[in-house]
Amino acid sequence: MVQPSEPEFEQAYNELLNTLKESTLFKEHPEYEKVIPVVSIPERIIQFRVTWENDKGELQVNRGYRVQFNSALGPYKGGLRLHPSVNLSILKFLGYEQIFKNALTGLSMGGGKGGSDFDPKGKSDAEIRRFCYAFMKELSKHIGQFTDVPAGDIGTGGREIGFLFGAYKQLRNSWEGVLTGKGLTWGGSLIRPEATGYGLVYYVEKMIEKATNGKETFQGKRVAISGAGNVAQFAALKCIELGATVVSLSDSKGAIICQEGITKEHIAAIAEAKPKFKSLEQIAGEYSAFSTKKVQYIPGARPWIHVGKVDVALPGATQNEVSGEEAKALVAAGVKYIAEGSNMGSTQEAIDVFEAERKSSTSLGSAIWYAPGKAANCGGVAVSGLEMAQNSQRVSWTTEEVDAKLKDIMVNCFNNCYETSVKYGAETNKESLPSLVMGANVAGFVKVAEAMKDQGDWW
C-alpha cells in the first residue's frame, strides 16, 4: 500500500485511515476495516517514456504516468499534471484523494490521476504540441470515454487539452468525450474554468450559514487566498461578488497582500499574464491595475502570516501549503473558516491545529471550522462530470444551468459531510461543530466501499 519513498501518498493514506478510526464507523460496521488494504492499492499504474523534439531539433525525454486507482463508481476520472515535481508518490496521493472526492459529487466517476515531469514553462507552443502528441501516443492506449477520462491540472490548461484531444482523435480515429476541459466550440462546458473556485466558495457559504444559524454571509468577511491560477482567481472573484474583501494571492515565487482589497481589475491582469508564465512580482510591476491601490509584494513567502486579521482562509495553490506554524498564525489572526481549494493544502500539523481549536470551542460563535480539499474543491471535477454528461447527450447547457447544478452539488456535498459526521462522530463536546474532515472521509469511503462490495472486490 504505502512505500517508504511515497511521503505524499502516505500522508493522504494516514489522514483517511486515522479519521475513519476516530469515527464510530468500524465499531458499527467492522467489516469495512478490511476494505482499507484493497482500496489503497491502485487497480493499475501505467508508467511510460515520452520522447519529443525541441525547437532546436534536440531529443528530449520525460516520464509519463497514469494511476488508474479505482473504477467502482465509474470511469477513472482525474487530471493530468505537467510539472517537474511530478512523481509516483504525488500522483498516487492525488489519485487516492480523487476516489473519495469524486464519490462526494454524487456523480458516476471513479478516481485516477496522471501527468509528467515535463515543464511547460519556457516552452514554445510548437514544443508543447510535440510533447502532447508524444505523451498521448502511449496514453491513448489506456483511456476512453467509458474507461478513463483525464482532465487538466497544474500545467495543463486549455491549450494542452486541445493538443492532447487532437492527438487522441488522430491516433484513435474517434471523436469522443475522452478529455474534459475542452474548448467551448468542441465539447467543453461553460463554468468549467470557474468551477473549482466557485464551488469552493459555495461550500464555505454553507459553512458560514450553518455555523451562524443563517445570521452571517460572506458580506464583510476578510478572505486570505493563496495561488494565482484558475482556482484562486475565480474563488476571489466570487468572494468579491458576495461582498467580501480578498486580501491576498500568491504564486511559487511570492505573495501579494492588499489590505484594502484585491480588485477585479487586479485579477483580470493576473488572468491575462499568467498564461504567459509571468510571476506576480512581474505582474504587480508591469500592469496599470496595480498602480491604483497599495499592493505589497513579499518575495519567497506564502500569505498566511502576513495577511493580518482574516475571517476566511482558502488555500488554493498546491499540497502542504499551510504548515502547523502558519495554521497557528491564522488562528491568532481570527480565522473562523478554512477550506482547501488545493488538494491536501494543509499539512497534518496544520489540520491538527484547526481541529484542536474546533474541539475546544465553547460556543458556535467561537468555533474554527476546517474543510478538506476532497470536499471543498470537488466542484471542478463535478463540472467535468457535467461536461461528460453533455458530451454523451450531444448538448450544451447554459451558464445558468451549469452554475445551478454546481451549486446544488456543493450544497449536497456539504450536507452529506455534515450529516455523516454527526452520525459517526465520537466527540462528546456538543458545543463544537462536527468534523468536516471526518464527514468527508467517512461519506466518500462508505460509498466507494459499498460499490466495491457489490462488484465482488471484497466480501
Automatic annotation (TrEMBL):
Positions of the Glutamate/phenylalanine/leucine/valine/L-tryptophan dehydrogenase C-terminal domain: 189-456
Marked site (Important for catalysis) residue numbers: D153
Gene Ontology terms: biological process: glutamate biosynthetic process
Active site, renumbered: K113
Record: residues binding substrate: K77, Q98, K101, G152, S384
One Pfam family, short name: ELFV_dehydrog_N
Molecular function GO labels: glutamate dehydrogenase (NADP+) activity; nucleotide binding
UniProt entry keywords in alphabetical sequence: NAD, NADP, Nucleotide-binding, Oxidoreductase
PANTHER family named in the record: NADP-SPECIFIC GLUTAMATE DEHYDROGENASE 1-RELATED
Cited NCBIfam families: PRK09414.1
Subunit structure, as described in the record: Homohexamer.
Family: Belongs to the Glu/Leu/Phe/Val dehydrogenases family.
Protein's name in the database: Glutamate dehydrogenase
